[in-house]
Input
Amino acid sequence: MSDFLPDMQFVTPGGRDPGRLGRIVLVLLWLTVCLAPAAFAIGDLELATGRAGTPGTLRVASCEALGEGRYDCQGIFTPDSGGSAVAVDASPDSEAGDVTQAQLTPEGDRAVPAGTKGVLAALTLPAVGFGGLGFLPYVIMYWAGARRGRRAAVAGGFLVTAAGAALMVVGMVAAYS
Output
């Protein structure tokens, strides 16, 4: 490794900054990348909270290994209203024999966990985006040339990013437990 160190450049080379329009585009792209997961999670959150779909019980009937750690699980969903049972796709992190409270999608093709577990699982992806927003205020302040408040922006960035990472981990644990 030490043979390569003389070839490495440790100082950021001087060059043009992105300019005013470039900065605006970069901030808009940053916002888009970080806020898009929240927009994509709305449907899953509506299902998990019971605002959409049909509440009931999901019994996982079988799980088939597809290779490379992937699984395809099938289940039987029984509505709480007493209707007839429906064959559905179950979450791939399920195991055959699992029984859980779930919501049937309006399309009727899959059932997702309901309640706290479902909400936490649905918040996993938006948490990643939330964490990504942490240092955006610092970057904007840096580009604006602001000297005051940048330390607070860094501290806030660490807190927001840590909160996003923690919520992501909690959501993943909820989804896979």
Observations:
- The mean pLDDT is 88.
- The chain has six helices and five strands.
